[in-house]
Amino acid sequence: MHGAADPWNDPKYADVKWTVYRDRAYDLQPFYDKHPGGSWLLNLAIGRDCTALIESYHLRPEVSDARFRGLPKLDGFPVDSVPKSPRPNDSPLYNAIRDRVRTELFGDDHKYSGGRFAHRTGGDAAAATIVGTAAVAWTLYAKCGAVAGVLPAIATGAFLGLAGAWIGLTIQHCGNHGAMSPKVWVNNALGMTDDLIGGSSLMWRYHHQVSHHIHCNDNALDQDVHTAMPLLRFDARQPKKWFHKYQHLYLFLAFPLMQLAFQVGDIQGLLTRDCEGAKLHGATNLELATVVLGKIAHFSLLLAPAFMGASAAAVAAGVAAFTAVQGMVLACTFAVSHNVAEAKIPEDTGGEAWERDWGVQQVVTSADWGDKIGNFFTGGLNLQVEHHLFPAVCFVHYPAIRKIVREEAAKAGVPYSEYRTLPGVFAEFMKFVKDMGTAEQIGDIAEPASPNRTMCPLGFVSKEPAPAAA
Ligand SMILES: [Zn+2]
């Protein structure tokens, strides 16, 4: 239970950039302009327990610990009123994997190319290819397709939808995680491509990083579990409607509708300062303005043919094709990674969410598929386990990290789910969607047929008090 004090509405803390790290409250202000990843990512930590954010984003715990030791502590702060975060560095599995990743892949002596930021390098060529493809797709759509008639508008709108989905899966995702480049402005700019394709980079950072990444597949705390409701039911603990038994049939109609629902959700989030699952405590006015400016930019790009002589029917057809294709590709690719039977958290894990072994949770709630080709086209979303363990590492490194994760998971006896191909995992996903339409409880959809297909009880870390940063 949280304490009665309310630090979010206490005038004493109104102008303080407070955060809680391992049961201690700190003022981030002195470090605000010095964070190597940029203040825009530090903002995510303001007004909440940032322990999982800090520990999952920094390969070198001793460096982030030292930063906290140098920050002013807020004595008397009502720490008990702040919901507790999981603690990745208390996970023996995560520590074992991370220690090998930092020494075997990135070199603790910092002599590897890229130095101490090597884990954020390597994505430049992919970024240039993706941005270039999107520019070509938009030019074809705006200048050739829609002005030539309805059918060319559909064809070029669909191509633009593919290019938009490629952006959504890759450079916006990795950029918003701060992982595409050692340069803050590059990550920020690539992150804002999410606004161009119709999302909101600001809302995405909070929803995806604060809610989804920290609490992957937790029925109560990961908003991605709820995003599709009531249209689609991805967890048996959600209310079951009569139409869910048909959800595997209407799934492909529902996905493009979800794209439209996100537009409404972004504006609602702006008005309430609350994107689903994560209040926007740290968002600056400039960041809030990007939500509106981004929508203006997106619809200007999408409706541009109307100002170049295209008919209303051709523009409508092009917009519909773009929306359907982009929505379908994004939704299918995001959904398969966490919505197969073995990735669901069992009914009762026997403790509070923050007490779980965060490393085990990340491994067992995701499923990998494919390898390097899938990695290039999905920005590493195919290697979802590795992405969840290392969201601040550029996706090009995930195939190498995967070998370490596989070995350490095997040593620890933790199930590690992987499929050889996208059709392989997609078939399991479709079966899951069908089963979830009628399941009474989460256990109904488990398939204990192979070690990879068994829902794993989440581990809990030692109850021994962890060392505080100070
Ligand atoms: Zn992510």
TrEMBL record:
Record has Membrane as a keyword: no
Residue ranges constituting the Cytochrome b5 heme-binding domain according to the UniProt record: 1-58
Pfam families on file: Cyt-b5, FA_desaturase
Gene Ontology CC annotations of this record: membrane
Protein's GO biological process: long-chain fatty acid biosynthetic process; unsaturated fatty acid biosynthetic process
Keywords annotated in UniProt: Oxidoreductase
Name of the protein described by the UniProt record: Predicted protein
Taxonomic classification: Eukaryota, Viridiplantae, Chlorophyta, Mamiellophyceae, Mamiellales
